[in-house]
Amino acid sequence: MQTLILLAAFGLAAQLVDGSLGMGYGVTSTTLLLAIGATPAGASATVHLAQIGTTLSSGFAHWRMGNVDWRVVRRIAVPGAVGAFLGATLLSSLSTEAAAPLMSAILLALGVYVLVRFTAWGTPRGNLGKPLRRRFLGPLGLAGGFIDATGGGGWGPVGTPALLASGRLEPRKVIGSVCTSEFIVAVAASAGFLVGLGHAGVDWAWAAALLVGGSVAAPFAAWIVRHFPPRVLGSVVGGMIILTNTRTVVNGDWLPVPPVGQVLAYVAVAAVWAAAVTWSVRAHLADRAAEKAAADRDLVVPEPVRDRA
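Structure tokens predicted for Probable membrane transporter protein:
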């Protein structure tokens, strides 16, 4: 029972992260399940089943707030579903020994990306421009869906930055469209895992706990953006993902690392993580100070010039 309560709380926190950054639910949830003993395929299958509910709730909330571009959703969701089904089928066919390093490597790379992306550049921003083309969205969706299923997460880390970098869709609609299309990807990935693993490969209680926590958080994800700096949150989450998956990598039989090397790896990751969070906090405070100074300058009203008669 304690495990289910923990998973529900973690699902809630992961959805708040995802709603703030446009990424993070699958990566953080899968990392937790692997840490408590789930197999790679079982962890990804459980998370994707939970995401059917969380993404539906999140997509509905974004639609109500006008944050969804349905042309983008249509053009990215279908290839994303194809990629997710193929990725789930591939991961289901691999042995645990072969799948563990693959998933840890993907999660570790995604954690490094999230840490560097938000520490160095802060919250992603984009500019309005021309409509996004199908030849761009199709391959993006296919790659994002495949990585999402094989890594237990990745739809947001792949799709959100690419759409923002294109400069053709405003940030709120990027996050809303990515979250909404993820529902189709989660359904396709779940179908692939059920075909490859059967019902026995999924922990239904864990999936339900994650679903409940995430569904509760989805409509209120925007709250955290107002009260917690996304830049700092991205650095915190990225470092947590790196540290957890570093433990999996250095403890694995496929990459034997002596105890001294393991300790040095943990210390190095912790030091980089602390430095990244410190940098993000300082950058956030500097940005706030600059915004306040700009606002104060705008409020200054020059005195009228009096005629000297």
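Residues 2-298 form one domain.
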